[in-house]
Design goal:
three-stranded antiparallel β-sheet; 5 strands; single chain; elongated; about 325 residues; about 65% helix; mainly alpha; 17 helices; two-stranded antiparallel ribbon
Length: about 325
């Protein structure tokens, strides 16, 4: 394997490039260090063990992320076998990999993938044995689940966390999970919001990122409340709904429109009458089926009542 490093022609074993790139990194030339490792397709080397390959790929990921080449980082991450990371002897690399992936997902502002990355770290056996490691991993998992858009996968993950005994040691975060599962309107700000917004994983990335997460948190609470309102009301005056959710009319309409666009809720707004309709229109077949079902129930009740009356008369 031959690589030209700034005029220096080297022939090296793949893992020896790590030492070379470390020198360039120490000199502050992260971009060149990343470029060197990118030229080595270590996954094609049959002579290297799984650990050596993963170690090298993780170093490629670290440097490409350091170079802020997030597209390349995603490509490199795809070379890592999740099956290999799940092996018992790969726990250390599993944690390193998902920490690097959390950096990538943070750049992409993808809270659900961040939640999955932190949960993968939390689920690692040796992390489970160390309270100083699993607590921040579990806290970050709950935080980014709260910030994630509503989806079946997100709800499934919340339900699984709700049954985790370790969550009992973090009452504030257990409370977050419980309020997400309740079909009730959530008051904003949350009781423990300050604690959430001071977590290292929340403020990592600077003030701009923290401000983005704060705005996301506000939106998720509003969207949750609108979704809950749609379960209890077929139609409601916009002013009344805004009052229930402690929102102004413009913000309420904006959020409802956004949720309708992404398909998370059905709604129509009648502006002149100031009415929000959440009931989904039914086709004629559905209406007829519902009517037929209601008639069957009515006839059954009549039959049961007649039987009970006859039974009462016979006992007299």
């Amino acid at each position: 394997m031959c690589v030209d490093l700034g005029g220096l022609f080297l022939t090296q074993y793949p893992l020896d490039f790590v030492a070379t790139t470390n020198l360039k990194e120490q000199e502050g030339d992260v971009a060149s260090a990343a470029d060197v490792l990118q030229e080595v397709h270590v996954e094609t080397y049959g002579s290297l063990s799984k650990k050596e390959k993963i170690e090298f790929i993780l170093e490629q990921m670290r440097l490409t992320l350091g170079k802020k080449d997030f597209v390349r980082a995603a490509i490199v991450a795809g070379k890592v076998s999740r099956k290999h990371l799940a092996e018992e002897t790969m726990e250390e690399y599993r944690v390193k990999f998902f920490l690097l992936m959390s950096e990538y997902h943070r750049h992409e502002k993808d809270p659900f993938m961040l939640a999955k990355a932190y949960h993968s770290i939390y689920s690692t056996p040796h992390v489970q044995e160390d309270e100083s490691k699993w607590i921040p991993a579990l806290q970050s998992t709950v935080l980014f689940l709260l910030l994630s858009p509503y989806s079946n996968e997100q709800q499934d993950m919340i339900h699984r966390l709700n049954g985790d005994d370790k969550l009992e040691k973090l009452p504030s975060f257990q409370n977050v999970i419980k309020i997400l599962l309740k079909k009730e309107i959530i008051n904003y700000p949350l009781v423990n919001q300050q604690e959430l917004e001071t977590l290292p994983s929340f403020v990592e990335g600077g003030t701009d990122m923290a401000a983005f997460w704060s705005e996301s948190l506000n939106r998720r609470i509003i969207q949750h409340n609108i979704r809950i309102a749609s379960m209890y009301y077929e139609k409601i005056h916009g002013a009344r709904l805004a009052q229930l959710l402690s929102l102004d009319a413009i913000r309420l309409e904006k959020e409802i429109a956004s949720m309708v666009s992404d398909g998370s809720v059905y709604a129509k707004i009648d502006r002149p009458k100031d009415i929000v309709r959440f009931s989904t229109p039914k086709n004629p077949e559905a209406v007829l089926t519902e009517w037929s079902t209601d008639i069957d129930k009515l006839l059954h009740l009549v039959e049961t009542t007649t039987h009970l009356i006859n039974k009462e008369n016979m006992t007299k």
